[in-house]
Design goal:
Strand content: 5-15%
Strand order of the largest sheet: 3-4-5-7-6
Number of helices: 27
CATH architecture of the largest domain: Orthogonal Bundle
CATH topology of the largest domain: Neurolysin, domain 3
Radius of gyration: 25 Å
CATH superfamily of the largest domain: Neurolysin, domain 3
Largest sheet: 5 strands, mixed
Distance between the termini: 68 Å
Shape: globular
Length: 678
């Protein structure tokens, strides 16, 4: 087979040649890449020379380049443009990959070389970056079971392999439920929906061949407008129920048993490594360090958030009564009446801001911000291959020098999983030669009909800035070694660059660029003022919705017996213990909690968004204190110690070098309206 995944790529910037790549190329490419990587590892372990940094650690960094290339392309397609054939490959390959990495990390001869270097690291004369890479590799091996006895190693390997299978199954089940559930809506049933939402619903009906003028799916981007604006309470209820029941419908896609098995295996894995729970294992390599520290943060925010939500609940029920409703507030009512409450309290209707948040303008504003902060410019390109017609590309330049390629994939489609994420087709490094990163942002905004503008909500505009912040973390990376490149940092630090970047969306120089899509007029100052005042509207709901899911995650992974309980019982236990209002649902119910169960990245780590929000709120105060949101000296420290540094130093130290001190929670509480400014 003439397999483009195994050939040299002669495309601009050596980008993946998607037009040449077919599904049938992936499996043989994976098999060839796995074999090549095994040979790389065998050469390291067979070396007769005593271990040194170059023949062991740097050699590990150079190994498996083909496997990394194939895997990066496949992983994005499997998430953003999948099909049944690709999913079948994913099911076959995921256990092979797990087995392959197990064999490497449990290779006693290989670990002996790494361990010997680690034990003598103080005498090796390594520069700080190389020393950091050695330390991270040693920790990787230890956390992957390298110190286990031979019998425990075998069981550890079985667990990791089975978890890979289950994670793939979990994600595919959620996507299948989303693809299979669609609601046809009549003209009357869409009453109250803004024009942008009706247009998107009409497009969905056409694309999915629904015999009705409108249709919505259970993807978040399709559901949110219905819950916020649909006057028909019955429509809101049926859409909400389907949304929260993804993966829990008692059909072939039900994730209850999958989830339980994942929890049991994670608990066993942690105990094999000597930890009392999976949460203790995961947080040992984090800024938080312990489950208690993560819980302490969650509880500090939970109580004031719950108090605000309980007060808002009374106000929302009063709105229902005032308009003649004889029903109690339910979860499918909250967003709808919260919009009315926001309008009453702050005279701010979010639909007022949407005409100024046209997608292309928001993207340009995010890029403008990168220019002001870090000296970046972005040139659109149409000669870089893409995997879907919706994907766009830009070349990023800093001080006139090309530093990488940025891909933007912004619209929802049935072949794409829910959510928004940043990934890459290639990471920055300069171990042998300077390698430019290929960075991808993926979102799920409603695609407008042809010729119509893509107008975003304020939250969606924040998502553009959020993911662009992740993208900059990859594009601006300036390290030598792949192991610590870009976003290769601990989970409760990785969200700092993305969440911090959201702050610039609402700064005056940026807002001035967001003009009305029809008139070209800037956002009126009065609307900006009302928007900023309304920023604290519904923060109680938002806090309860998120923090409850983070506490549930910690409960799942702190209790070794969690895998023996029914999913509903686990959720009920957590909700009762924390006193969660009945009218607010978890942001992510267990059976579609993709962060936790499609892989282990955010398992026992969903709290990290809040941890990073402490960092980002406190970090932006560094700019506020100067009176200039683009203060050059502060931006230079931000670039040097956060965005360009990857994982090259301890994360708490990196933050202190940027901020001048440890983070404080006060700015976060003030931002959410839970504490008066001092």
């Amino acid at each position: 087979m003439n397999n483009p995944l195994l050939a040299a790529w002669t495309t601009p910037f050596g980008a993946p040649p998607f037009a040449e790549i077919a599904t049938e190329h992936f499996e043989p490419a994976y098999l060839a890449a796995l074999d090549a990587h095994r040979q790389d590892i065998a050469a390291i372990t067979a070396s007769p020379a005593p271990p040194d940094f170059d023949n062991t650690i740097a050699a590990l960094e150079r190994s498996g380049s083909l496997l990394k290339r194939v895997d990066m392309v496949f992983s994005q397609l499997a998430s953003a443009n999948t099909n049944e054939a690709l999913q079948a490959v994913e099911r076959r390959i995921s256990p092979l990959l797990a087995r392959h990495w197990n064999a490497i990390y449990l290779d006693a001869a290989l670990f002996a070389r790494v361990d010997a270097l680690y034990r003598t690291r103080a005498t090796l004369g390594l520069d700080p970056e190389a020393l950091r890479v050695l330390e991270r590799y040693h920790l990787d091996f230890v956390r992957a079971g390298a110190n286990l006895t031979e019998g425990d190693r075998a069981r550890f390997g079985e667990i990791v392999e089975r978890l890979a299978v289950l994670g793939t199954q979990f994600g595919q089940n959620v996507l299948a439920d989303e693809q299979n559930t669609i609601f046809a809506l009549s003209e009357a049933e869409t009453d109250g929906l803004p024009d942008f939402a009706r247009a998107a619903a009409a497009g969905t009906a056409k694309d999915r061949s629904v015999n009705a003028p409108y249709a919505v799916t259970t993807s978040r981007s399709s559901v949110e407008p219905v819950l916020h604006f649909a006057h028909d309470r019955g429509v809101r209820e049926k859409v909400w129920r389907a949304f929260v029941k993804r993966g829990a419908n008692g059909n072939a896609n039900d994730n209850s048993a999958v989830l339980a098995e994942i929890l049991r295996l994670r608990s066993e894995l942690a105990q094999l490594l000597g930890y009392p729970s999976y949460a203790h294992f995961k947080l040992a390599d984090s800024m938080a360090k312990t489950p208690d520290a993560a819980r302490d943060l969650l509880e500090q925010v939970w109580e004031p958030g719950r108090r605000r939500a309980m007060a808002d609940r009374i106000a929302l029920q009063q709105l229902i009564t005032a308009e003649g409703g004889d029903f109690a507030l339910e979860a499918w009512d909250w967003r709808y009446y919260a919009e009315q409450l926001r309008l009453a309290r702050y005279d701010f209707d979010e639909t007022e801001i949407k005409p100024y948040l046209e997608l292309d303008r928001v993207i340009e504003a995010a890029m403008y911000t990168a220019g002001r902060l870090f000296g970046l410019t972005f040139e659109p390109r149409d000669d870089i291959p893409v995997y879907h017609d919706d994907v766009r590309t830009w070349v990023a330049l800093r001080d006139g020098h090309q530093i990488g390629v940025f891909y933007g994939d912004f619209f929802a489609r049935p072949s794409k999983r829910s959510g928004a994420w940043m990934t890459s087709f290639r990471d920055q490094e300069k171990l042998d030669d300077a390698v430019l990163p290929l960075i991808v942002n993926t979102c799920n905004f409603l695609k407008p009909p042809a010729g119509k503008p893509a107008l975003l909500s304020l939250d969606e505009a924040r998502t553009v800035f959020h993911e662009f912040g992740h993208g900059l973390h990859g594009l601006l990376s300036n390290v030598t070694y792949p192991r610590i490149s870009g976003t290769s940092v601990v989970r409760d630090f990785v969200e700092l660059p993305s969440q911090l970047y959201e702050h610039w969306l609402e700064q005056k120089p940026v807002l001035e660029r967001l003009v009305h899509y029809r008139t070209g007029e800037p956002i009126p100052q009065d609307l900006i003022d009302r928007m900023k005042l309304a920023a604290q509207a519904n923060t109680g709901f938002q806090t309860v919705e998120f923090v409850s899911s983070a506490i549930l995650d910690m409960d799942y992974h702190s209790d070794p017996a969690a895998g023996e309980m029914a999913v509903d019982a686990l959720e009920h236990r957590t909700r009762e213990r924390i006193g969660m209002p009945r009218e607010i649902a978890l942001r992510h119910a267990s059976t579609h909690f993709l962060h936790l169960f499609t892989g282990d990245g955010y398992a026992a780590g969903y709290y990290s968004y809040l941890w990073s929000e402490v960092l980002d709120a406190d970090g932006f105060e560094a700019f506020a204190e100067t009176g200039d949101p683009f203060d050059p000296a502060t931006a230079d420290r931000l670039f040097k110690f956060i965005y360009s540094a990857g994982g090259s130093r301890d994360y708490a130290e990196a933050y202190r070098l940027f901020r001048g001190r440890d983070p404080q929670i006060a700015a976060l509480l003030t931002k959410r309206g839970f504490a008066a400014p001092t």
